[in-house]
Amino acid sequence: MFTFPRITRRRRRPDVGPLLRVPAFAHGDPGRLAELARHTDILRLPPGRTLVRAGATARELIVLLAGEAAVLRADGTRAVLRPGAQIGGCELLGRERHAATVVATSALEVVVVNGPAVRWALAEGIAELAPPASLSASRPGASPSPRRDPKPTVRLAS
Asked: Whole-number mean pLDDT of the chain?
């Protein structure tokens, strides 16, 4: 009589490396981040891909790991997001809509964490969402700021 060999499956622990590169989760305990990692996706997106559209309901937190994206507002304000930038965190917590459209200007690598997982991580003390940082923006006719970056700084609500 033939018997099938017993197959044992080993559950791999989710990779928390990308989450440790996200400022909101960088201080988190790797064991707890493994629980959160089950609710995240790492995506590679081509240039020209829209990450979020203005007016759409925020359902997840998106963090840029590599590449750049442009923020386009209805009033014509433009800004550039670089690695470490968070998209949708504040709107997600307030259950609001996105204030601007974000489009990839180069190939992107992003971490996407679903909304309930972000709320759980904040409640458990695994995450800290900071208010939106200043974005370097380019506005026609604006004078350069005194900082090292010759582009003026505009504060956008994310």
From this structure: 76
